Amino acid sequence: MTEWEHTAKEAESLGIRTIYARFGVILGQEGALPLMKLPVKLFAGGRIGDGEQWLSWIHIKDVVNLLIYCLTNEKIAGPLNFTSPHPKRNKDFIKALAKVSKRPNWLPTPSLLMRITLGEMSE
Hints:
This protein is an alpha/beta fold. The protein has helices spanning 3-13, 33-41, 60-72, 90-101, 111-118; strands at 19-23, 25-27, 54-55, 57-59, 78-82, 88-89. 43% of the residues lie in helices and 16% in strands. Helix 2 packs across helix 4. The model has no long low-confidence stretch (mean pLDDT 84).
C-alpha cells in the first residue's frame, strides 16, 4: 500500500466510503499517448529496452466513465485497478502504434535514455 493509500485509510476508519483508484498508463490525447508516440512519429520508434515489460493501459474516456460509475455506485469501495483487461508487452504495443502511425518499428529505444529523459515517468 502506498503512502497516499495509508492517508486515505484514515477516512475509511471514520466510516467514509473510500476508493483507492490505481491507474494504468492513461492513453488519449490528454494522457501519455502523445509522449509515447513521439519517437514513432520521428521514425525512431521501437521497443523500449528488451520490450518484455508489461504495459497496463486504459483510455482516458474509460477512466472518466469508471470514476463517474464509482462515485454514483455506493456499493463500490476499496482498491480498484483502472486498466484494460488485457495488458500488452511494450514491444507489441509499440509495434501496433507504429503500424497505426504508418512508421517503421525497428530501432529500439535504450532503457537508460528513457530513464534519463523521463525520470520516474519511465517506470
